[in-house]
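Interim report to the steering committee. The following record documents the input for Replication initiation protein (336 residues).
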Amino acid sequence: MPPRPSSSRSSCVHPIDISDGRTVRCGSRLKHRCSPCAELYRGDWAAIARSGVFEDPAAHYKFFLLTLTAPSFGPVHRVSSAGRPCPCGSRHDGNDSDLLGTPLDVQTYDYLGQVSWNRDSGLLWDRTRRRLRDRWDSLEYFVVREWQARGVLHVHALVRIARSECPSEAELLTSARSATATSAVDGVIVQWGAQAACDTFRVGAAGAKAIWYMAKALNYVLKDLARAGLSDRGRSWVHIARLNAAARAMRCESSCYPPDCMSRVHQRFGSRSHVASASRATARRTGWSFTALTRSRQRTLRSEWAQKMACVADERRAGESRPADESAAPTLSDTG
């Protein structure tokens, strides 16, 4: 059951007034706009993630945590807690955190390539999950798309496959990484980067840790790095400005004329992907959630709960406003 919502105005920073003096949540997914609504969104997805792991049928499946990243668009600064040297030759520490992910040379860095990859990353994931399902028909997934410090998306996916056809970690990783897609905008071949990982985990403590990891990634995404999260990193401002300029100049679709296009894709480093997603139930598939939990279902449950609480409150107020002698008056059944 999703967390019980508060129906009060204070539970949302920017409630929307509707008829009869009632309000509804603004529904923002961004913490800097409305932290309560963003937290509700995160909680909904965390509940969906759990519902595909901690249920009775889970014993018949094997679980993987798969991470896929974008390719390189040029060397960037790295900050190592172990003191390892950066590609620039220096050893950066915590005082240089604002350099993390910024290019060594902004003049040669492939900004257009990076924002275009963000734009097409959703298509690439679609081709990837199709490729995986072609090999392992029982595969279901839960995905969170997180921003790397350099301003490019990478994918964390919980993958569930029936034990009867289960691959090894290496097989799953190789199949996922080798997937490609062709951009519908410019015909470029889109592919994953060299950095990737795939680990199995068991239901129980390891499963809880995997869910926590995904929730942490989702919490980071809700800060909306593309629009606000990088803005306070002092020396990264040139990198941010160039990313924004590249996203503004990029075509978001084949018919796009960037100077006149109002699509939000131009405002988010090229990204058009949803923050989180999960495979859905069909006539022949369970979907990720064993209980068919979706955000739509969670909203319905909250609405039903809020209506029930409103009825209880109305009855309580009616009882409090009833005159004392009226409440004590005999009924027809009392008088015979």
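The radius of gyration is 25 Å. The committee is asked to note this result when reviewing the revised timeline.
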